[in-house]
User: Which sequence fits this backbone?
C-alpha cells in the first residue's frame, strides 16, 4: 500500500462511477419507510420548476454575498451548479438525489482513505481504521436508502458523486501523496470532516424543504449520524494536532487521561448550522 | 483539464472553503488550541495535580449553575427528589406544534437537571475521581441544553403561552430513580446517554410531524447536537462513538423507538 497520489486519484476517479459493489442492502426499517411513500409521484411541473428556480436564486444570492464571487468567476460557478438540478424532477427527488450524491462522494473518499497505510494499513490506529470502515459502510447504506426513496417517487437513482465537491476531494487526495503519516492523517481527517459536515448541514436544511413526511423522516434519521461522525472527527483532529494520537483509543482509562477541552471539542455549537449545506438541487440527476 | 474546467473547479473550491470557513475558524480558534494547550499542560503536570484541578473546575461549574439562577428549582433540588408534577402535561391549551414545543422544553429541563445534579454530586465527591474531560463535557452540555430549553420557551412565549419550567413529568421519576443509583462517572454517563437518546429520538420523530417550518428548523438544528453529545459519551465510556444497538452494533440510521 502506498501513498502515491496518482494511484489515489485513479482510485477516486474509478469511484466516480459509483459503486454497485459498495452499496449495501437497504435497512429493513427503511424499506418499510420508503414503501409507505408509495404516494403519487410528484409531477407538478410548474411547482418543480419553481423549486428549481427558487434554489437557483438562493444559491446565487448566497454566493453573491461572499466577497469571493467576483474574483473567482462566480457567475460560471453559479451557472454550473444551477444547471446540475433537473427542473423536471420533483423537489423531493432533487433533494434525495443530491443527498445520494453526497453519500456517494463520502463512500469513495473513505474507500480511498482506507488504502493509505496510516488509515487502513498495519501502521494505522485501529480505532481510526474501524471508524473509517464503519462510516464508509454507513454512507453506502445512506446512498442506498436515498436512492430507494428516489425510485419510489419515480425518479432516477443518483449513482455519481456530487460533482461540485469532487475537485476538492481530488485536490486533497493528491496532496496526501507527499505527506508524512502524521500530516496525511490530519489531511484525511480534515477532508472527512468537511464532507461529513456538508452532509449533516444539508440534511438539517432539507428536513424543512422536503415535502413528504417519509422523506423528512429519512433525512432526520441520517442527519444525526453524520453529526456524530463530525463530533468524532473533531475530537480526533484535536488529539492529533495536540500530539496525543495515543488518546484516540477506546481502552479503559482513556477518558481519565483526556484533556479537559476534549470534553467539548466535538460539539462547538448548541444549534446545528446550515451555512455549509449544499443547494437542494445541486446533485440532482441531469 | 480544460481551462473552463479549471475555472469551475477553482470556484467550487472557493465556495467550499467559504462555506466551511466559519466552522474551521471556530474549531481552530477555540477548540483545537484549548485541547493542545491542555495536552501541553498535562505533559508537565502530575496526574494527581491534574485531577485536583478538574475537581476545582467541577466545583466552579456547579456553583455557577446554582448561583446563576438559570434553573433555580432544579439546581436547588440537585440531589434530592423533584416535586411531583400533578398538572396535565402538556399544559391545557397547547396543541400541535406548541404542544411539541412544551414537551421539548420539558426534556431539555430534565437534561439540565440531570447534568446539574451530576456536577453537584461530583463536586461533593460522591462519584469518585472525575476526569477533567467529563467535567468539561457536563458543564458545556448543560449549557447547550439550557439554550435549547430557552429556544423552545421563546417559541411558546412568542405565541402568548407560558414557558415550561418543569422537567418532563413522564420521565422525571425514572431519571430520579436511576440517578439515585449512580455511584460513579460511568453510571452518570450511562444515564446521560439515556436522556440524550430520548431527546434526540424525540426531535427526530417530531421533525417529520411538525407543521411550521420554524419548528421543524429548530427541531432539526437540535437533534444532531444531542447526537453529538451521545457520540462523545460513548467515547468516554470506551464504546464505539456512535448510535448503536444495545449490543453495541453501530447503526447507520438512528431509530425513534425511544421517542416520547
Assistant:
Amino acid at each position: 500500500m502506498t501513498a502515491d497520489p496518482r494511484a489515489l486519484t485513479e482510485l477516486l476517479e474509478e469511484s466516480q462511477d459509483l459503486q454497485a459493489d459498495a452499496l449495501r442492502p437497504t435497512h429493513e426499517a427503511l424499506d418499510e419507510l420508503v414503501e409507505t411513500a408509495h404516494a403519487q409521484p410528484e409531477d407538478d411541473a410548474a411547482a418543480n420548476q419553481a423549486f428549481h428556480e427558487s434554489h437557483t436564486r438562493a444559491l446565487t444570492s448566497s454566493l453573491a454575498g461572499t466577497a469571493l464571487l467576483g474574483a473567482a468567476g462566480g457567475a460560471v460557478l453559479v451557472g454550473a451548479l444551477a444547471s446540475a438540478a433537473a427542473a423536471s424532477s420533483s423537489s423531493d427527488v432533487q433533494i434525495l438525489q443530491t443527498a445520494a450524491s453526497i453519500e456517494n462522494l463520502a463512500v469513495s473518499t473513505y474507500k480511498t482513505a482506507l488504502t493509505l497505510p496510516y488509515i487502513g494499513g498495519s501502521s494505522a490506529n485501529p480505532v481510526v481504521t474501524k471508524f473509517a470502515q464503519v462510516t464508509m459502510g454507513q454512507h453506502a447504506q445512506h446512498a442506498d436508502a436515498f436512492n430507494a426513496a428516489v425510485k419510489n417517487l419515480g425518479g432516477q437513482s443518483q449513482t455519481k458523486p456530487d460533482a461540485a465537491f469532487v475537485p476538492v476531494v481530488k485536490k486533497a487526495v493528491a496532496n496526501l501523496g507527499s505527506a508524512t503519516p502524521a500530516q496525511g492523517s490530519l489531511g484525511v481527517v480534515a477532508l472527512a470532516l468537511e464532507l461529513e459536515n456538508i452532509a449533516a448541514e444539508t440534511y438539517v436544511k432539507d428536513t424543512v424543504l422536503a415535502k413528504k413526511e417519509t422523506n423528512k423522516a429519512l433525512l432526520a434519521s441520517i442527519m444525526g449520524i453524520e453529526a456524530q461522525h463530525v463530533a468524532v472527527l473533531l475530537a480526533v483532529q484535536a488529539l492529533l494536532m495536540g500530539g496525543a494520537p495515543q488518546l484516540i483509543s477506546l481502552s479503559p482509562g482513556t477518558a481519565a487521561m483526556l484533556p479537559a477541552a476534549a470534553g467539548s471539542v466535538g460539539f462547538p455549537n448548541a444549534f446545528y448550522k446550515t451555512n455549509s449545506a449544499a443547494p437542494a438541487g445541486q446533485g440532482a440527476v441531469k | 483539464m480544460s481551462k473552463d474546467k479549471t475555472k469551475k473547479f477553482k470556484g467550487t473550491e472557493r465556495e467550499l472553503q467559504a462555506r466551511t470557513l466559519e466552522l474551521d475558524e471556530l474549531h481552530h480558534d477555540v477548540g483545537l488550541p484549548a485541547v493542545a494547550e491542555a495536552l501541553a499542560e498535562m505533559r508537565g503536570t502530575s496526574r494527581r495535580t491534574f485531577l485536583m484541578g478538574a475537581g476545582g473546575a467541577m466545583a466552579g461549574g456547579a456553583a455557577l449553575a446554582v448561583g446563576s439562577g438559570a434553573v433555580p428549582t432544579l439546581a436547588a433540588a440537585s440531589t434530592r427528589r423533584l416535586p411531583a408534577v400533578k398538572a396535565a402535561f402538556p399544559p391545557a391549551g397547547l396543541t400541535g406544534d406548541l404542544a411539541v414545543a412544551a414537551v421539548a422544553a420539558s426534556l431539555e429541563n430534565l437534561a439540565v437537571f440531570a447534568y446539574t445534579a451530576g456536577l453537584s454530586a461530583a463536586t461533593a465527591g460522591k462519584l469518585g475521581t472525575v476526569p477533567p474531560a467529563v467535567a468539561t463535557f457536563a458543564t458545556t452540555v448543560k449549557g447547550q441544553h439550557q439554550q435549547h430549553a430557552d429556544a423552545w420557551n421563546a417559541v411558546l412565549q412568542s405565541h402568548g403561552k407560558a414557558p415550561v419550567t418543569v422537567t418532563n413529568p413522564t420521565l422525571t421519576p425514572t431519571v430520579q430513580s436511576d440517578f439515585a443509583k449512580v455511584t460513579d462517572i460511568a453510571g452518570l454517563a450511562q444515564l446521560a446517554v439515556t436522556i440524550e437518546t430520548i431527546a434526540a429520538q424525540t426531535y427526530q420523530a417530531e421533525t417529520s410531524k411538525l407543521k411550521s417550518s420554524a419548528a421543524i428548523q429548530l427541531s432539526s438544528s437540535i437533534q444532531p447536537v444531542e447526537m453529538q453529545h451521545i457520540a462523545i459519551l460513548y467515547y468516554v465510556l470506551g464504546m464505539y462513538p456512535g448510535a448503536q444497538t444495545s449490543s453495541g452494533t453501530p447503526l447507520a440510521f438512528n431509530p425513534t423507538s425511544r421517542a416520547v
